[in-house]
Design brief:
Layout (H helix, E strand, L loop, with lengths): L2 H8 L32 H6 L8 E2 L10 H17 L1 H23 L6 E4 L2 H11 L7 E5 L4 H14 L2 E5 L8 H11 L4 E7 L11 H10 L3 E5 L18 E5 L11 E5 L32 H17 L1 H19 L5 E3 L12 E5 L4 H12 L1 E2 L1 E4 L4 E5 L7 H12 L2
Parallel strand pairs: 1-11, 3-4, 3-5, 5-6, 6-7
Antiparallel strand pairs: 2-8, 7-8, 9-10, 10-13, 12-13
Bound molecules: pyridoxal-5'-phosphate (PLP).
Length: 415
């Protein structure tokens, strides 16, 4: 398929088709636009705001995503100032800077300032919750076969240590409806169910789960919901309360392109009191979310740079970013689905995925396929092998080009 068809098919070329890629001259700054407008955006400028290594095609942005060139330069400068002034900066600015970032995150996430803290990543955020809630022997936690290992490990450790009962459900790879998913969770619920872990976007396949519907069902039965939003935050467009979770954790270094080692924890206001902080705290009132912020010495530059990443994201617009990312996956998976040797682990319905896609080569192990993609075509992906999903994960970011996807498609044809 040609670029023109890509633009037409994905609806991203509106207003651009008449002069395709004339915006190549537009320079590095992206246009300032109403963030929620669905109109034309200078995607070439967005792409050029990043600085990827030209020696290979990076389709593995799901691990973490690069900062923009401008964002990274500012981040380096924050580090330089800190290094030069050391504790003079930390003692006088750390608390205020952290609060300002919390304020920005709260506004961006549709929560109140009193419900969010900055963490280092999703693992930390959700370990605070998983290990901080009092449970009794025999209480149940529901997980799925496709939740992230770090969360499963934290929950399984409580199982070993305290006799908590863990129930694991199997998720379909290509659900027919939201009902099908909600029913799986519902069937596992009992009077002893206290917590349900819901991964908003599955890291293996990219499947987006109907988080709010699951949460409503769980709440109707008196249990609570922990949402792992590591992959969905700043990727698909939502405000945190719309997920319906009592507790939500995410990594800001993934789709928000904030510095590596930045995360967020949201705790619904009326739930803060019941959660013990992982790093003990007795000074703050138990209802104050600051009790989770006792993290020791942390890099101030990372905290500040989160705000720069939010600003960049807002200039693009959440909806527009989601649609662009989805269109990329749709582009390559639509082609791959026509190939007789390729199978797709990502749901068919475009509303159930965005940038994250997963394919497999029939009869081949994912490791060698991913290796060959890199050695022969300079395309970086990641092989995935779990008891439920075997394939190769492909995660383009905003800086990837149609040409990158065309090269992937051409490579897939050779398997
Ligand atoms: C669904 C999901 N949850 C949690 C994590 C953990 O994120 P981090 O390593 O940033 O803590 C990941 C990482 O890829 C993930 O995909």
């Amino acid at each position: 398929m040609e670029r023109r068809n890509f633009l037409r098919k994905t609806g991203l070329g509106i207003g651009v088709l008449a002069t395709p890629y004339s915006f190549l001259e537009a320079g590095n700054q992206i246009a300032t636009q109403d963030s929620q407008s669905s109109g034309e955006l200078d995607w070439e400028s967005v792409r050029r705001a990043f600085d990827p290594n030209p020696d290979f095609i990076n389709l593995e942005n799901g691990y973490f995503s690069p900062q923009t060139r401008e964002g990274y330069n500012k981040f380096v400068e924050y580090g330089r100032v800190l290094n030069q002034n050391t504790s003079k900066v930390m003692r006088s600015e750390m608390e205020d800077e952290t609060d300002e970032t919390r304020r920005a995150l709260a506004e961006f996430s549709g929560t109140s300032f009193e419900e969010v803290v900055v963490t280092r990543n999703t693992t930390e955020s959700l370990n605070i919750i998983i290990n901080g809630i009092d449970l009794e022997k025999g209480d149940e936690i529901i997980i799925t076969d496709q939740d992230y290992p770090n969360m499963i490990n934290a929950i399984r450790q409580r199982e070993k240590r305290e006799g908590i009962v863990v129930k694991e459900i199997r998720l379909p790879l290509n659900p027919k409806s939201d009902d099908e998913i909600v029913e799986k969770y519902e069937a596992a619920m009992s009077a002893r169910t206290r917590l349900v872990l819901v991964t908003h976007m599955i890291n293996l396949t990219g499947q987006i789960l109907p988080c709010k519907r699951i949460a409503d069902m769980v709440h109707s039965k008196g249990a609570e919901v922990i949402v792992d939003a590591a992959h969905s935050y700043a990727h698909v467009d939502f405000k945190i309360p719309e997920l319906g979770g009592d507790y939500v954790g995410t990594s800001l270094h993934k789709w928000l392109s904030a510095p590596v080692g930045s995360g967020l924890l949201y705790v619904k206001k009326d739930k803060i009191e019941k959660v013990w902080p992982l790093m003990g705290d007795t000074e703050n009132d138990p209802t104050n979310i600051r009790k989770f912020q006792r993290q020791g010495t942390q890099p101030i530059g990372t905290r500040k740079a989160i705000r720069d990443s939010i600003e960049f994201h807002k200039r693009i617009g959440g909806k527009r970013k989601e649609e662009k990312l989805r269109s990329m996956t749709r582009y390559w998976t639509d082609e791959a689905r026509k190939m007789k040797n390729i199978g797709i682990n990502t749901p068919e319905d475009p509303s159930r995925y965005a940038a994250l896609g997963n394919f497999f080569v029939k009869g081949a192990k994912p490791g060698p396929v991913s290796k060959k993609l890199f050695s022969d075509y300079k395309i970086m992906t990641v092989p995935i092998k779990t008891s439920s999903v075997t394939g190769i994960r492909v995660t383009p970011q905003l800086y990837n080009q149609v040409d990158d996807l065309d090269k992937l498609i051409a490579a897939l044809k050779t398997f």
